[in-house]
Fold Carboxymuconolactone decarboxylase family protein.
Amino acid sequence: MPQQRIDYANVAPEGRNALLKVAEYAHNSSIDRRLRALVELRVSQMNGCAYCIDMHATEARAAGESQQRLDCLCAWRETSFFDSREQAALAWAEAVNRLDGGQVSNDVYEAARKEFSEKELVDLTLIVSLMNVWNRMAISFHKPIEPRN
């Protein structure tokens, strides 16, 4: 494992605290804990952030997620494990995270709007966006992940 480059939380506590305020909003948003953990985990998988993958997989299990669903999350489209709301959230999260062609397709948007209110979709987008910030901080500065026994 690479050595930590910068302990960003100690070097720039004001910046970290600002992110924590947004995280507090996301935690109390219209998106329930279990779905939020799935989205955070999927975005972290896409971005390759081991620290965040570990954290959000743990949170997802604490929220009641089965290990099988977590194991198959990276291939969610190939399973029948996720309901239509979860599928719409995961498709939205992937599209927002990638921004293929600089946008989210109308098909993905329409599918998400069938499952989520405007407020929920804004909250979901905020969760995806915030995960990108946390992922980029952890990856850039090699935030250490401690092994569990």
Summary: The chain has a mean pLDDT of 94.
